[in-house]
């Protein structure tokens, strides 16, 4: 997490969200972005939620990545209390495979934006990359790292598929 002041807050509704949200944290670590990680539940720790969201801007956070599953009110509630951009990650739920999480996060009323990502690992990874992209707007070194990461990703994709199972 580094010594410097966190620029990105990663929060999740439950310990059970960690395997998903770890993918966002992995990206932030890869890019050396100062961050913090906490469990903040909209339903089980509402006072913690209010304190976190209301303090986010003053503490210098530039983005909050919020992951939750099921009745996933965490990203929207955080967004209702801070101008800091909130990136919502729908965690795949057992009951409805994350469709519940996705709809809970994406259907915000006009005026309270949450940038909503894909369900599960891809969403968490992309939320990390999106936070990096936001910060790269005014950090040339980070922009260079992000460009290099994207080039490496392109280079890793073979032009011709391996004909498995033939
Ligand atoms: C949400 O409820 C959490 O974000 C989690 O995805 C889901 C289930 O939580 P647990 O019952 O596993 O703690 O608040």
Explain this structure to me?
The protein has 166 residues and is α/β, with parallel strands linked by helices. It has one domain: Rossmann fold (3-Layer(aba) Sandwich), CATH 3.40.50.1970. Helices cover 42% and strands 15% of the residues. The protein is built from 6 helices and 5 strands. A 5-stranded parallel beta sheet has the order 2-1-3-4-5, sandwiched between helices. The longest helix is centred in the last third of the chain and has 16 residues, at 121-136. The chain is globular. The protein binds 5-O-phosphono-beta-D-ribofuranose (RP5). 5-O-phosphono-beta-D-ribofuranose (RP5) binds next to strand 3. Keywords: Isomerase, Lyase, Purine biosynthesis. It holds the Pfam family AIRC. It is an enzyme of class 5 (isomerase). Substrate binds at residues 14, 17, 44. Catalyzes the conversion of N5-carboxyaminoimidazole ribonucleotide (N5-CAIR) to 4-carboxy-5-aminoimidazole ribonucleotide (CAIR).
Summarize the SSE layout with pairings:
Layout (H helix, E strand, L loop, with lengths): L7 E5 L5 H13 L4 E5 L6 H10 L7 E7 L4 H7 L5 E6 L7 H8 L8 E2 L4 H16 L3 H16 L11
Parallel strand pairs: 1-2, 1-3, 3-4, 4-5
Helix pairs in contact: 1-5, 2-3, 5-6
The protein binds 5-O-phosphono-beta-D-ribofuranose.
5-O-phosphono-beta-D-ribofuranose binds next to strand 3.
GO molecular function: 5-(carboxyamino)imidazole ribonucleotide mutase activity; phosphoribosylaminoimidazole carboxylase activity
EC number: 5.4.99.18
Family: Belongs to the AIR carboxylase family. Class I subfamily.
């Amino acid at each position: 997490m580094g010594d410097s002041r966190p620029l990105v807050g990663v929060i999740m509704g439950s310990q059970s969200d960690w395997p998903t949200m770890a993918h966002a944290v992995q990206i932030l670590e890869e890019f050396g972005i100062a961050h913090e990680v906490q469990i903040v539940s909209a339903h089980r720790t509402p006072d913690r939620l209010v304190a976190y969201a209301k303090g986010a801007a003053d503490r210098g956070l530039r983005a909050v990545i919020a992951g939750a599953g099921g009745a996933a009110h965490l990203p929207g509630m955080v967004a209702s209390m801070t101008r800091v951009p909130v990136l919502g990650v729908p965690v795949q739920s057992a009951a409805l495979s994350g469709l519940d999480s996705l709809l809970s996060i994406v259907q915000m009323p006009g005026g309270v934006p949450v940038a909503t990502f894909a369900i599960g690992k891809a969403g968490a990874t992309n939320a990390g990359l999106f936070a990096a992209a936001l910060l790269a707007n005014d950090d040339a070194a980070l922009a260079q790292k992000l460009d290099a990461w994207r080039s490496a990703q392109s280079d890793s994709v073979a032009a011709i598929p391996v004909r498995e199972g033939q």
